[in-house]
Amino acid sequence: MLSQLVYVSNRKPSCTQEEIDKILSSCKKNNPALNITGVLLYSDTKFIQLVEGDAKVIMQLYDKIKLDSRHSNTMMISYGPIKDKAFPSWHMGTKKLTTDTIDFTTDITSDDKVIFDKILTGKEENGQRVLSLLKKFF
User: Fold this and answer.
1) Average pLDDT for residues 5-29, to the nearest whole number?
2) CATH number of the structural domain 2-137
3) Are the beta carbons of 111 and 120 closer than 8 angstroms?
4) Closest-CA residue to 39 (of 102, 85, 108)
5) C-alpha distances in angstroms, 82 versus 4, 5, 46, 90, 99?
């Protein structure tokens, strides 16, 4: 069953840009064969990642992600079946956020800003709202 998972975690100070590049390189190498797509937003202190693919594969990947020493306090924001992938051609799109306090200069609403703050703290559980907001970054 096609599924989507979103999590947030704290980036450890020891996780350098070189480590981020390794994560992305690994995604580009491994994700096509696993039919995994998604996006990664990261700052100096946070990761927000959305992954999509077969439910079993996604959960196995998430179990590995939780053990990764480059971050801590991994919290699943949403998980569930989807009809279609939101990012079907991206084996791992990425965007670096320059700060955890985002100054939105797009058409984002004040409600979106509240949702983003909830995502960063692991308190947003509505997968559709999370997806809608993440799409605005890409």
Assistant:
1) 93
2) 3.30.70.100
3) no
4) 85
5) 6, 10, 26, 16, 31
Length of the chain: 138
User: Is 15 exposed, middle or buried (CB count within 10 Å of its CB: 0-12, 13-18, 19+)?
Assistant: buried
Q: How many CB atoms are located within 10 Å of the residue 106 CB?
A: 8
Confidence at residue 117, expressed as pLDDT on a 0 to 100 scale: 74
- β-pair partners for 78: 6
* Cβ 84 vs Cβ 34: under 8 Å: no
10 Å CB burial of residue 3 (0-12, 13-18, 19+) is middle
Strand 93-96 to 37-42 pairing:
parallel
> With helix as H, strand as E and coil as C, how does 19-43 read?
HHHHHHHHHHHHHHHHCCEEEEEEC
Question: What does the pLDDT look like over 37-79, one tens digit per residue?
Answer: 999 989 888 899 999 999 999 999 999 999 999 999 999 988 9
